Amino acid sequence: MRYEEIRAEIAAGTAARTLPRWAGGVVADAAEGRSPAAAVRHPLGFLCLPVERSGDLGVCLHIWTPEVRPAPSTTSPVHCHSWDLLSFVLYGTVRNVRMDVRPGAPDPTGQVFEVVSRGGVDELRATGRAVRHSPGRSAAHRTGESYTLPAGVFHRTLIEDGDDAATVALGRHTPGGGDLSLGPLDVPTHRVRRARSAPEETARALRRAAALIAAAHPLPTGETR
Question: Cα-flanking dihedrals φ and ψ of residue 62, to 5°?
Fold first, then answer.
């Protein structure tokens, strides 16, 4: 399935019947080496399995799992996207906490970094723009639910009710926006290479994800995957 097909399923309210079977197949194929897509450890704490990148559109599976150690972060979990996000929760509970970010406030808590990604390398450019941030409103999204997050909204994502969650994440790039992160005031511009976990760890994590998708969305009696 591609971006427009997945978006149509979510809009029609049929995603819970169609996306888990499709996503389970994608994850199982990647786990067994039947797919060219390679999962990478994302600095925000999940495995990212790319599915589609076509112009301004993209589809990835995001998998939070205890099987793989999160990649170390050099800034913080607070970030904003240059793209509008539409996600469907395959299993688990995902909470997005929006952040109130105030430029020029006294006693700043950090600075803004511009994130430029090329070929598996993230360049985090320190802007020197000091801000103060604090948690704002939040919302939890559970198995079978979908949610949106517009470009330019600072937030952090938390996994509740255990260590496991997975989403089908759709992104549509918004012109003029940037990928941003909040980090310490004293950290300069630097580069971070995105790393793959050990192949056996990745395969184990993907098999676990495929099993959790199947458990969260059992097929009707008589049907097979």
Answer: -105, 125
